[in-house]
Design goal:
The chain is mainly β. It has one helix spanning 9-13, and strands at residues 21-31, 35-38, 43-56, 62-64, 69-75, 78-89, 94-104, 113-121, 135-141, 145-153.
Length: 154
């Protein structure tokens, strides 16, 4: 199945208009315990192994493959994140994800700031649209699972 993303006349006429976000899919990444690596007095470097997960949504279905990981650098109360892992789609394609972002607690403990900007690589013709668009991820930590709603920016 080839996914086509519409480019409206409005977008062609005004490329600097306010962006519109459409839900593409949700990734649920299963993670193991953090491994402390070190750094210095004001920073903490850690690695979180990715051990599996799922991908489901209107534009993509598949599984997160075990073997990737998330490197985080904590400075004060903010974590700078860089995760890299693979997805296998339901049609058998393999997609590489590099997902960078930030996490920090907010005044409302139910709603921390957890945003990412995933970038995808694949040579699958059916999923090439992933390599041709910008995405925004809204994430949440849910007890050994990271839930990321991925939106395509139009």
């Amino acid at each position: 199945m080839t996914t086509r993303l519409d480019t409206s006349d409005e977008a062609r006429r005004d490329p600097l208009r306010e962006p519109h976000l459409d839900l593409a899919f949700e990734i649920r990444v299963d993670v193991a315990e953090d491994l402390h690596i070190g750094r210095g007095a004001n920073e903490r470097l850690a690695f979180t192994p990715i051990i599996g997960g799922t991908v489901d949504g209107p534009l993509l279905h598949g599984e997160v493959l075990a073997g990737g990981g998330d490197w985080s650098v904590q400075r004060d109360d903010t974590f700078q994140l860089e995760a890299r892992y693979l997805i296998r789609t339901e049609d058998g394609a393999t997609i590489d994800i590099l997902n960078r972002g930030y996490y920090r607690e907010t005044a409302n403990p139910e709603s921390p700031y957890f945003r990412t900007a995933p970038v995808f690589q694949t040579d699958s013709a059916a999923h090439r649209w992933l390599t041709e668009h910008q995405f925004l991820g809204l994430a949440r930590d849910e007890d050994q699972q990271i839930r990321i709603r991925v939106f395509v920016v139009r």
